[in-house]
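Thread: "does anyone have the structure for this chain?"

Original post by V.I.:
We have the sequence but no experimental structure in hand. Need at least a predicted one for the grant figures.
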Amino acid sequence: MQVAILGTGKMGAAIARRLHESGHGLTLWNRTRSRAEAIGVGKVAGTPAEAVKDADVVISILTNADAVRNAYLGESGAAKVARAQVFIEMSTAGPDVIKEVQPAIERGGAKFVECPVMGSVTAMETGKGILMAAGDDAAIERARPVLEAIGEMRRLKDAESAAKLKLIANTGLTVISALAAELLAAGAAAGVDPEDVFWVLTRFAPVLAARRAGFMEHKHEPVTFALRDAAKDIRLATDVYHRAGAFTPLADTTKDLYADRRAEELDQVDQGADLGDLLGADGVGHAGIEAQRRPGAHALEDLRGFDHTLLADVGIHVAAAEKRRRAIEAARIVAGRAVGSDQAPAQPRHRTVPARVARRPLQRQARALGEPEQDHALRGDGGLDALDQVREHVERCREVRLVALERDREWIGVPRAARGLRREVGPAGQLDLGGDGHDVLGRGAAPVEEDHRRASRGQGFAALHDALSVSDAQCLPSMPTTGAFTYSNPRVIHWGAGSIAQLGAELQRLEATRIGVVTTRSLVESLDRLRVRPAATVVIGQHAPTAQVRAGTKKAKSAGVDCIVSFGGGSAIDAAKIISVQLADGDGRALPHVAIPTTLSVAELAAGAGFTNDQGDKAGMRDPRLMVEAVIYDAELTLATPIQLWLSTGIRALDHAVEGFLAPGEHPFNDVMALEGIRRLFDSLPRAKASPSDVGMRTENQLAAWFSFTLPGASAAGLSHTMGKQIGARHGIPHGVTSCLLLPHVMRYLAKTMPERMQLLAQATGVDPANRVEELIASLGLPQHISQFDVGQTALRVAAEELANKYPAADLLGIYLAAL
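Reply from O.Q.:
Generated one for you, tokens below.
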């Protein structure tokens, strides 16, 4: 038979070699032509359409749903020449894409068969794969010689079931791999020979045997199943499970483990890796983190130079001679006791003495922990629900546990990518709302005198890389008879023309002597208006690129600054927050930060910060220490801000207010403030446009923006914010503009499920809030269409698929297309 193969990655190439050996004629197509040519069998076509036009059977085995769409539905896609062929779709792309592709294929008379495959590259090459086929009986019979050459076939009832079963299979593989890595680490810590641990694991899960090199030797070449693909598959799978209403805590936790690896690393590392190597480090480098990303050991003395925020949540097992005890203490590591090199605990595979970084009260009094129960007791509250307990269990296995001995010197090994080097605030549990929101369980707000910038239990520096996300539990479901509100805005806010005069008093109150100023290029010439002499000036670009944040941290540290002043919009303020935490002192206290905003984005009001990672995607972090100490709203300093930027960030403030008001749960204080902020923005933004130099009107804009953001966590996690961040940094669209593009369409989508809230919102906007917001944006002359930024449907599909979780990808794509 003449067979066309679309996609010649590892599996596609293996299938091609097998079918060639079985006597079938081949035409190959791959997006990167050289990969198809390198296989050395059959002919190579330039487009999918060219590859399939003369084929009897077409096999597609592509990376993801977007690749499938492009191969079938693109300009030179296979659907254009689909006539009498049998199309066998083997990609792991989820069930949704089938609904788009199958009708297009069968419209021209061809037949579509969904047939995911399981098995290794070797299994495909030797005809021992497992195929799960669903489709027209006659079509499957026609393709049987091809299918049976690849492996054993099982028939399923329909195409959607076949796609879902493959996701279930890959969920099993990823969960088993994660569990195996955890048990290998746990066994080694307990003194069990890793060879014995791996032997028993393969008795329960034989599939692990094929990945022995990755688990036992940390050798990941050749790659059999890239982590990038594993992360994609389990994300697709959990999306299916959630939409079906299934409770899958193990799958969800494993998804988080795989998702935290950055894209370029995922492409290179095999899924068989020990997860001690897999766990991702921060997206923004702390001082000293580059050393941590390299394998190998570091002298104990070297730990003294590490940023203590970096070590704040690391549990380290230390084996050290008595002479090294002082070095351990200087590094702020509390060990139960020192251990000589010749003693049993210092020997390979022996359970070494647990040590803890001194920060939390119990950890400052840490002693050698003999039993797991004692280790668990240090972890705090036991009132978490079952899902939190699963996640806490996984967090515990992320601690650094490697000790290496070299001659007479004791070294402490730190994996190149130990996620224990930082900790997210974590899923907002019933007892910990992460610093803002309403605690409707009556736990109560923090005392007024509490220093909210000191790290507290479970609130170490948090880097939520590749997505600025806040838990949906910021506002818990309605319990109207009781509640508590933790006010999480800065302690001091000055406003009004000339209020910059208060900066000197604030710096004196904070006992600041060496000031680091973080600003944007357009404001460098205006720094003299701040009336301070900076010890260091850091210039930050749009969306706070992580490389600039790293460089700024290094510059501020070299200058010995003891206070940060940010002067600019959201990018400068967010970068300043990150720098202030990275330069935290030995007790984990961030440098004080005074913000002087020149836009209406109100980044200064949240204990979160966004940045652009090295891949150009929006990422972010939440940490209570990111909250600034004081804000100065001086409208005179904003007159240099272009009016279009000013107005678009005003719509961003409107977005904050709307999404905070529409957030789940009871939040009466925020509702009052949000409605007032919306009224003032509707009234004052058009007047600011009419009189751009009116300082009084700009002050009114600033007050309205302030009122819009009293529930920062819920607002930042809103649908419009999340969708905007997904396309903003990637396509160079400013934050304020993404709100202009998306907010009206998101409001129309949400109105279907919350009509009563929309009626209340109409009290501030007028009848039909979504239309009123759209009219306001138009009247201000702001952008309203995504297409104005050269973003097409393909990119929007990718964005929707990547975001799909709480909301289906199809719904998100519908919103994006409405804004196109």
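V.I.: this helps a lot. The first helix runs from residue 10 to 21.
O.Q.: and The chain has a mean pLDDT of 75.
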